[in-house]
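pls design
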């Protein structure tokens, strides 16, 4: 699994970035979201579905965004021009090794499902429906209970329901630790064999964006709605003017490209610079 960040900021959840008391704040955020979101979306069957929906729309939660695709992660590491003065990073997580460290009840459930990741329905099946605790605690209390029984925190991977096409296009999934107070980067630092971090140098970000554009990994394809449609021309306009000539190999030919705003405006076959690349044989 992969996660791209425009800067080398600590690996934390949006809930942890919001407050130093994430567990206390979470219940209030989720309660308000469930109450007022009903004007825009159908009622969700359980709390884990509400958390996935809220995370998708920007609600601070205990969930952390990851991707199945390294190219999508690379896009998020290089796409935000506000971080062009900083190195980006791509995190790589060993999902099989994470699943192998799960407490026995979770490991057995995944084995029966033939999967390495959970769905919201699978997580909901672990909730204690007979508990006298408040509903929020009854639905979300089992990870911490399993942590106490196993003696160490663990990480669960959650594949969200396909709420809209954006989730599908971005190959999205979420990670959550057994305690919302546990900082993901610290958890991984104590288990260095589970993850690696690759640095995307700041001076290569513009080239990374151009290369990803050739693979059709852009704001327009990852956000197949008005957001992506608007962001694409804005990205082009904000790209610095590149007057220098760049070269790369394409189908055995050395091609030249002069770029303005990151958008190729001329590609020629080096064997015959006056012949358009599209017609070269």
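designed seq:
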């Amino acid at each position: 699994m992969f996660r791209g960040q425009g800067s080398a900021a600590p690996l934390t959840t949006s809930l942890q970035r919001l407050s130093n008391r994430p567990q206390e704040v979470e219940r209030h955020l989720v309660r308000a979201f469930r109450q007022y979101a009903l004007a825009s979306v159908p009622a969700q069957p359980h709390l884990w579905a509400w958390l996935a929906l809220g995370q998708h729309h920007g609600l601070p939660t205990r969930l952390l965004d990851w991707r199945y695709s390294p190219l999508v992660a690379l896009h998020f590491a290089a796409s935000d021009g506000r971080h062009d003065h900083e190195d980006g990073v791509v995190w790589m997580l060993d999902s099989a090794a994470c699943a192998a460290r799960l407490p026995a009840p979770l490991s057995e459930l995944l084995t029966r499902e033939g999967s390495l990741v959970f769905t919201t329905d699978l997580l909901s099946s672990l909730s204690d429906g007979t508990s006298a605790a408040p509903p929020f605690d009854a639905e979300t209390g089992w990870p911490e209970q399993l942590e106490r029984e196993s003696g160490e925190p663990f990480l669960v991977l959650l594949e969200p329901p396909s709420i809209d096409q954006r989730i599908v296009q971005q190959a999205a999934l979420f990670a959550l630790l057994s305690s919302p107070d546990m900082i993901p980067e610290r958890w991984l630092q104590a288990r260095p064999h589970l993850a690696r971090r690759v640095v995307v140098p700041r001076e290569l970000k513009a080239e990374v964006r151009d290369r990803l554009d050739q693979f059709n990994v852009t704001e327009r394809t990852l956000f197949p709605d008005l957001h992506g449609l608007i962001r694409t021309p804005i990205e082009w306009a904000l790209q610095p003017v590149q007057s220098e000539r760049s070269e790369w190999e394409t189908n055995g030919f050395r091609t030249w490209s002069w770029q303005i705003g990151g958008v190729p405006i001329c590609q020629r076959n080096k064997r015959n610079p006056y012949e358009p690349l599209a017609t070269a044989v």
